[in-house]
């Protein structure tokens, strides 16, 4: 189709199939899974839509040049040949992120520096003025990827990582990344068709992402800016059209989303973040100790939570994780309970059989997303009833 081009969305380890499915659901063409990324095709409107709607993407890149490189001269020459002044204005700041896996280049900083020289020299030659570099908060981000002798230059259409949704103003000490939270919820099968509980809700990330999935609200609706807004070919009217069309696809949610936390500060932060996300009407957040609670609703309950990992307090953690198992077993019949932890030793103390165990990463920590299926009555009774 005319106007379509190739794009690449970056994601977290293990989330490639979910991201690929998200892209297909949005209408992307030629979707192919890679390692921590998914490639796809679409037009400019789809690039805007991908940034707005994808829940499990960290970045959306638009490749603009691919060439062979054997040395720094090849790199400089090919980057220089790109018509940079037609892509962004010299008054905009820019930054380069490089990833290198090559015998010819072993330093990504050096690659970024050479590419920066080529871009600056191109501007000087064409418009007699150079743009400034801003590593922290650049208007335009450029991505350079060298694998062996193949170099791909891409425009980073997102800018700041897409996990920065714009709703989370207050956080706790170890908040869960929004993209990770959304991916874990989707892996758990959350679809908004039951009640939901996060019994250790912290700053409310699972609650908010669960609410947005349930109502089909675009993931980044609260975000104010993307790097593509600083490109010369940015079309604000088209972007607004995409936003309006996406908001028209929201749906009503007829169940409850409940959050508990022991700490008053966490309850306050959660409530503020939920308010910022405009989801207060669907949420109930209370100060409660999970170990002293019972299932708050009739019927099926979907539970996802991120208990403390406590790597420095293994003895207390054993007791803590034993209590998790006891509370689920005694007080939460008819519950699909999912938790993420990197404390694999403490996990053994839960004392319940997992029906699924999925390897994921929380930052650099290798973790497991585990599923405990708590039946109404005993498991034996369930099967006798069938």
TrEMBL record:
<dbReference type="InterPro" id="IPR053943">
    <property type="entry name" value="RlmKL-like_Mtase_CS"/>
</dbReference>
<protein>
    <submittedName>
        <fullName>Class I SAM-dependent RNA methyltransferase</fullName>
    </submittedName>
</protein>
<keyword id="KW-0808">Transferase</keyword>
<dbReference type="InterPro" id="IPR000241">
    <property type="entry name" value="RlmKL-like_Mtase"/>
</dbReference>
<dbReference type="Pfam" id="PF01170">
    <property type="entry name" value="UPF0020"/>
</dbReference>
<keyword id="KW-0694">RNA-binding</keyword>
<keyword id="KW-0489">Methyltransferase</keyword>
<dbReference type="Pfam" id="PF22020">
    <property type="entry name" value="RlmL_1st"/>
</dbReference>
<dbReference type="InterPro" id="IPR054170">
    <property type="entry name" value="RlmL_1st"/>
</dbReference>
<dbReference type="InterPro" id="IPR004114">
    <property type="entry name" value="THUMP_dom"/>
</dbReference>
<feature type="domain" description="THUMP">
    <location>
        <begin position="46"/>
        <end position="157"/>
    </location>
</feature>
<dbReference type="InterPro" id="IPR029063">
    <property type="entry name" value="SAM-dependent_MTases_sf"/>
</dbReference>
<dbReference type="GO" id="GO:0032259">
    <property type="term" value="P:methylation"/>
</dbReference>
<dbReference type="GO" id="GO:0008168">
    <property type="term" value="F:methyltransferase activity"/>
</dbReference>
<dbReference type="Pfam" id="PF02926">
    <property type="entry name" value="THUMP"/>
</dbReference>
